[in-house]
Amino acid sequence: MKHLTLTTALVAAMALPAAAQDLRIALQSDADVLDPDQSRTFVGRIVYASLCDKLVDITPDLQIIPQLATEWTVAEDGMSIDMTVREGVVFHDGTTFDAAAVAANIERSQTLDESRRKSELSSIASVDVTGDYTLTLNLIAPDATVMAQLADRAGMMMSPTAAEAAGVDFGLNPVCSGPFSFGERVAQDKIVLNRFADYWNADAINFDSVTFLPIPDTTVRLANLQSGDIDMLERLAPTDLAQANADDSITVVSAVSLGYQGITFNVGNGEKSETPWGQDKRLRQAFSYAMDRDAINQVVFEGAYAPGNQPYPNVSPWYDDEFPIEARDVEKAKALLAEAGYPDGIDLTVQVPNTTIPLQLMQVVQSMAAEAGIRIEIVSKEFATLLADQSAGDYQASQIGWSGRVDPDGNIHQFVTTNGGINDSGFSNPDVDAALNAARKVPDTDARKVEYDKARAILIDEAPLVYLYHQSWITAFDSRIEGFTAYPDGMIRLEGVTLSE
Amino acid sequence: MLSFFLRRLLIAIPTIFLISIFVFGLQKLLPGDPLLVLAGEERDPAVLEFLREKYRLNDPIPVQYMTWAGNALRGDLGISLRTNQPVTELIAQKLPVTLQLAMMSLIFAVVIGVPAGILSAYRKGTMVDWVANVVALSGLSIPNFWLGIMLILLVSVKWQLLPASGYVPPGEDLWLSIKTMLMPAFVLGTALAATLMRHTRSAMLGVLTSDYVRTARAKGLSERKVVLKHAFRNALTPIVTMTALLFGELVAGAVLTEQIFTIPGFGKLVVDAVFNRDYAVVQGIVLVTAVGFIVMNLLADMAYVLLNPRLREA
């Protein structure tokens, strides 16, 4: 009997990591609709990281690696991509994943009326299913960004059976092929995912369920982690960093994001661009020289973020080293103002979202600019209003950011090319258009970099957007969690992550 | 008597109708385009146009209202622009949460506020009165979010006695559900207790100096009986009104408290909905809240009648 108990105990001890475990993750806000084709929020993507596998994934240094697609080759002329997909994968409803499923998914992303993915996949003309597990993506024109698009929502695979049956309501009960399947959702309360036993990489998954809890208040998020009510939280506020670091039972990791924050000037979007700020680049240069980017990072973000002067952070392979972040130069800023005809200074109106961080940022920016003679008036607006005014050109300068994309194209092309979809600045320059369009087409990374650098030289001089900093994704979790890696896309990937009891 | 309530009910119908028109109009007056947020960061023009058509935002505003009202009469409150969930389902999810929070808060408010009010009126001008007033004033002045965070840090992080935040349905685990809601109910309850204490005090002060109380004392009744039975019962009417109104307010949602304690109730839902211009959700909640207020007022009226026999003849 004693032996038996001992053996049982030993077996139990060995099996311990497999004990029923729920991982509780606090999110900053509630996700929107859980349909990868309709979804638009950052927190939604965090949920998908556990729910929906993608064709390809990224490494922390932005290399594209296989996930459901195991191999791909771009044709010589860049007009097509041959792809092989993984065998032995099933969706949560038992439907088999194959090349036909990929074709159905791409078709849905391109044709569903509600789809927000259309522009991301606009270069794919058609999909040829060439075998059970092989297919060819035919492109309208060579496009170096396609694979990076497939590393995010546009590449997430939904069960074609479920998608067909549910139509636009797919998000109420999403069926994908990720490590966890959809359990239940109570709006603003929780999203529960359960372990998917037939996951192709099930051995790497060590939790029986994951519960996502939206907890908007940053202090309360941390308090929940400290009290043990949750195991992990995303986006720790820099102001809470010291407290989290001081707590031995909490581990903090961070990665500089792919996005940026800065000031967009109206240089050609309607009547409001016809001001000295919109017409004279020297003023915008002066503004940039007046900024102490390092001090902004220290004062507003406790040094936890990364100062920036380009759309990509300086750790990115796409950063142009020719134009490093310059030290603040108030004299130069004053000289530029004088040269432009404003030796006594000039007024500038900046619109800013009416939330804490942007307001704090702008107050620091305001005092720095004042020392160079730029008198900033801050107009704070609620976000939906700010966006509408910005899009309509009803602004002089706007404090707004971008969440970031894996491919550099997504962080620059649409903002500064003449017909760019979100070129709210109204910037237009044929050389920039040519360089950025060329960078889309050449498949070779080095050749692309040359084109981006060409555009950068002009953009630094013209300064339609003055970049200030890059947010970092700061993730905090219970120190008993091991194997977690922070990624520049801010996603929480649970493969290989364990929580010891 | 019955006709009185029927009349009240009939008045309620145009009231709800007017409220819904008013709120609908106000929402449309808000600047900003909800679809710019909803269409995603890229703001694809084709998507924008499609969504405008789908949610009929191109229709004239009166037509939009009529469409909404027509569906609402058939019990269809539309779907959320943000999550695609039916509004009726959202309300069904949130209403029990909000009701539970409201009830627990009200218990705190009544248990603290009413006795404190009676005591401070009875001991008017003494140290007891003074202390009760200072406490009440603090209850009113301390911001909910501050008290909430302090409680979380102390009770949950330091002492680890109660869950820091969140919500557990009572059907799932009753004890845990009550434990989770204890702190938020206390935070809300203390603020309301202050209001209730002040009202109880002034009502009691009015009654305690009246002739029948003097007579009751002259009869040789115990102080306890004089205060609780003769004085308090007559002071109850304004207290009941106040309690009913407070409950109505609680049902409308306690935004800050819900935010701090991450309680998925009405307050959080409606604030998010306003910021996202999620018209259908805002309309739906306003409708439910308005009905809630009217019902509470009716209940208060009925309570008067029970408490005050003289009204029964009227």
TrEMBL record, chain A:
- A single GO molecular function, which one? peptide transmembrane transporter activity
Alphabetically ordered keywords of this record: Signal
- What single Pfam family name could you report for this chain, choosing any that match? SBP_bac_5
According to its record, what are the GO cellular component terms? ATP-binding cassette (ABC) transporter complex; outer membrane-bounded periplasmic space
Q: Where are its TM segments located?
A: none
Report which superkingdom the organism of origin falls in.
Bacteria
Q: Is-annotated flag, keyword Signal? A: yes
Annotated Solute-binding protein family domain ranges read 63-420
Give a yes or no for keyword DNA repair in this entry: no
Q: Which GO terms describe its biological process?
A: peptide transport
| SUPFAM superfamilies recorded | Periplasmic binding protein-like II (SSF53850)
Q: Where in the cell is it found?
A: Periplasm
Annotated signal sequence range:
1-20
- Give the similarity note: Belongs to the bacterial solute-binding protein 5 family.
Q: What is this protein called?
A: Peptide/nickel transport system substrate-binding protein
Its source organism is Jannaschia helgolandensis
Automatic annotation (TrEMBL), chain B:
Against Pfam families, the record matches this protein to: BPD_transp_1, BPD_transp_1_N
Its record classes its membrane topology as: Multi-pass membrane protein
| Compartments it resides in | Cell membrane
- Domain ABC transmembrane type-1, first and last residues per copy: 95-300
Task: Report the superkingdom from the record.
Answer: Bacteria
Q: Which UniProt keywords apply?
A: Cell membrane, Membrane, Transmembrane, Transmembrane helix, Transport
Q: State any GO CC term.
A: plasma membrane
InterPro entries named among the record's database cross-references: BPD_transp_1_N, MetI-like, MetI-like_sf
Give the residue spans that cross the bilayer: 9-26, 101-122, 134-154, 174-196, 239-261, 281-307
Q: Output the SUPFAM superfamilies linked to this UniProt entry.
A: MetI-like
Tell me where it mainly resides: membrane
A GO molecular function held by the record: dipeptide transmembrane transporter activity
The UniProt similarity line reads:
Belongs to the binding-protein-dependent transport system permease family.
Name listed for the protein in its UniProt record: Peptide/nickel transport system permease protein
What is the species listed in this Swiss-Prot or TrEMBL entry? Jannaschia helgolandensis
Lineage, top ranks: Bacteria, Pseudomonadati, Pseudomonadota, Alphaproteobacteria, Rhodobacterales
